[in-house]
Amino acid sequence: MSKVQIGLVQMSCVADVNTNVQKAIEQIKVAADKGAQIVCLQELFTSLYFCDVEAYENFELAESIPGNTTNILCDVAKEKGVVIIASLFEKRTSGIYHNTTAVIDADGTYLGKYRKMHIPDDPAYYEKFYFTPGDLGYKNFDTKFGRIGVLICWDQWYPEASRITALMGAEILFYPTAIGWATSQDEATNTEQYNAWQTIQRSHAVANGVHVVSVNRVGFEQEGRMKFWGGSFVANPFGTILYKASHEEEETAVVEVDTEKTDSYRTHWPFMRDRRIDSYGEITKRFID
């Protein structure tokens, strides 16, 4: 199937997990009713972005994968005939937690999970306190509507992650995300940060000749100190923006992509053909002294 309808759910969250889950379910159904075949939710959609503080009680938000939330979403996927990409806080075992995305096929089958590989540690983004780095490697998932690759938020800054995922055959790269501006920042800084965020992901589309879908949360959190900037978007295999959400509003959109365009772009702009894989050995070094 070459033409695929992609659903993006950009939403704000509250402290109550059940409220967030129910909102996500409602918007998945809205997207499905608009024709969506694959629906992507934002990073850690079941809760507020809790990594703004290092608080042990937040570990209580974690759950097994598969588990309760994936079971609920499997029913929704089967009911609406859609693939669901769901980012969750995974409790693997006592003391080991991951930032994980589950992928559910359109018949309600749980296909598997990807664990976030790159874990940030910045002011108000203290993810290293909570998350063990992923150990499943980069992943592709064969769904009813195509082969997809899933990465998570901080992964989006690393061309190596997108390259490997694309080399595994992904037709579309999905990035569930939670990123925002400190409300103390000036507008010029905000604009520069958003443009860098969008540009690096568009560059992954160009370099790999695949569509990129990035879904961010929106709204004020951390007692108004953080504004998640929304701006979810879809880029085609040459980086052209097919859709961009607002920075302020919750939005559920459906965007058509044509995965057959990958062959055309890769043929006319043969970056994949001309890769000098024999010369890249030093990429695995931390720094070349």
Descriptive account of the structure:
This protein has helices at residues 17-33, 68-80, 159-167, 187-208, 261-268, and strands spanning 3-10, 38-41, 83-93, 96-104, 110-115, 140-143, 146-150, 172-177, 180-182, 211-216, 218-221, 226-229, 233-235, 241-244, 251-258. The chain has one domain: 4-Layer Sandwich (Nitrilase/N-carbamoyl-D-aminoacid amidohydrolase), CATH 3.60.110.10. By secondary structure, it is of the alpha/beta class. α3 packs parallel to α4 (187-208). The strands form three sheets. The protein has a six-stranded mixed beta sheet with strand order 5-4-3-2-1-15. Strands 6-7-8-10-13-14 form a six-stranded mixed beta sheet, with helices on one face.
Going by CATH, the homologous superfamily would be Carbon-nitrogen hydrolase
Helix content: 10-25%
Counting structural domains, the number is 1
Number of strands: 15
- The CATH class name reads Alpha Beta
Shape: globular
Number of helices: 5
What proportion of the residues form beta strands (DSSP E)?
25-35%
**Mean pLDDT level:** 97
Per CATH, the architecture is 4-Layer Sandwich
Which strands sit side by side, in order, in the main sheet? 5-4-3-2-1-15
* SSE run: EHEHEEEEEHEEHEEEEEEH
Write the SSE topology:
Layout lengths: L2 E8 L6 H17 L4 E4 L26 H13 L2 E11 L2 E9 L5 E6 L24 E4 L2 E5 L8 H9 L4 E6 L2 E3 L4 H22 L2 E6 L1 E4 L4 E4 L3 E3 L5 E4 L6 E8 L2 H8 L21
Parallel strand pairs: 1-2, 2-3, 7-8, 8-10
Antiparallel strand pairs: 1-15, 3-4, 4-5, 6-7, 9-12, 10-13, 11-12, 13-14
Helix pairs in contact: 1-2, 3-4
